[in-house]
Amino acid sequence: MLFSSLSGHAESLAELHVLIPGGQGGGWDLTARTVGETLQGTGLVGRVSYENRTGNSGGVALSHLVEGVPENANTLMVNSTPIIVRSVSNIFDHTYRDLTPVAALIGDYGALVVDGDSPYRSFDELVAAFEKAPHRLRFGGGSARGDLDNIVAATIMREAVGKQAQFLEYRAYDGGGRAMDALRAGRVDCLVTGFGEAIQLQRDQQIRILGITAQKRSQAYPDVPTFAEQGYRVDFVNWRGFFAPPNLDDRHLNAYIDLFDRLTASPDWQTAMARHGWVSTYRTGKDFERFLSRQEDELLDVMRDLGIYYLGY
């Protein structure tokens, strides 16, 4: 039995299994574990377990959720904008349309970061180096070529250097954790990642954030510059949310939505969002589904405009 009366006024979840399409240390992992810990801490869920099922830029986990319905009865998968890239690329066996959209919870701004020992102290310095020798500057990201991090990197650099951005060298890693390891090891010169993933590493002086894709500085972290204030029109937020297996019945879908309604209303959740520099993108059920459909059209236009197509690893 998945749902039980753990609280007096509404059903709560007795047990939840969270499927994470990437490795530890990435944005999906951070979001899943922050949500799970807050659900348990507020008493909204009895027990939360996690499974990092990596591979194929999230495709392995997606196929597992679609094809393994009986064993996934109490499972939600965390995902984000890359699941839309999969859909518009039209080269994968499964897309978000094969799942049951439950809720988009948070938005995480993109961040361009360098290692703490990098010679680049500002975005303008990195731009100057790119203009001088574009092929010598290696960009990294935790998604495949033609996927979200590549798109964000290309968008940022096209705003900065125009058509010269076509020479951008992007190196793909399967997950934000591996991408960050590559940056720290010197295998790439800069990295596109999530603001929430980068915050603590900057506070520990392990990396340096050159800019984030927000219009205004974060209230929680006002020392981090935006690209907008540096004169570059880059505005993007990556939603992250949860999907259930295919054909979930209305009773269980509504129970999940009620669960997230109560989570997002809790002070503990507001504290968690502020800690990671996240913003709310909360929408559920059919509203979430309509949002995904709109984003498909918008993202396809962006990819065509940039001349970017999904190429894998």
TrEMBL record:
Naturally occurring in which organism (per UniProt): Saccharospirillum salsuginis
Similarity section: Belongs to the UPF0065 (bug) family.
Transmembrane segments: none
InterPro entries xrefs: BUG, Bug_dom1
Pfam families per the UniProt record, alphabetical: TctC
Protein known as: Tricarboxylic transport membrane protein
